[in-house]
Structure to design on (137 residues):
């Protein structure tokens, strides 16, 4: 309910805006990719055949609760626009995966597999960005 003045000079720094966006997603009671879907997305990203992997991710995305799906579609559409300007902002789909993967998708209970999970989290976000039209189209 706090009123924000977006004309304030603090919002001119893109890092502040990005940090606020990441903080919003990090502080949700449950990640944008709900906990109960974590292992399913990890298993899907492990699929070797690219077409089957994309189809599996698409099917999982369709099963998400409607608010999660709608938010995800808008967020990934925006991140895809950022990746399209990689030559200017140096943010590739891989970089965006590294930045947003652990924020949007994480297990409910951390295990000793944090490094492995992080790799999959990054790959899932990267795939969803690079195959946005096939997954959300």
């Amino acid at each position: 309910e706090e009123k924000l003045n977006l004309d304030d000079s603090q919002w001119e720094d893109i890092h502040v805006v990005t940090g606020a966006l990441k903080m919003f997603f990090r502080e949700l009671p449950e990640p944008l990719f709900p906990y109960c879907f974590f292992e399913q997305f990890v298993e899907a990203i492990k699929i070797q055949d690219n077409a089957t992997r994309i189809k599996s991710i698409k099917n999982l995305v369709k099963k998400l609760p409607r608010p999660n799906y709608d938010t995800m579609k808008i967020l990934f559409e925006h991140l895809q626009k950022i990746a399209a300007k990689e030559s200017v902002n140096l943010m590739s789909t891989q970089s965006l995966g590294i930045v947003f993967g652990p924020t949007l998708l994480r297990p409910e209970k951390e295990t000793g597999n944090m490094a492995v999970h992080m790799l999959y989290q990054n790959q899932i976000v990267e795939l969803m960005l690079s195959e946005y039209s096939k997954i959300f189209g």
In short: Residues 35 and 137 are 24 Å apart (CA to CA).
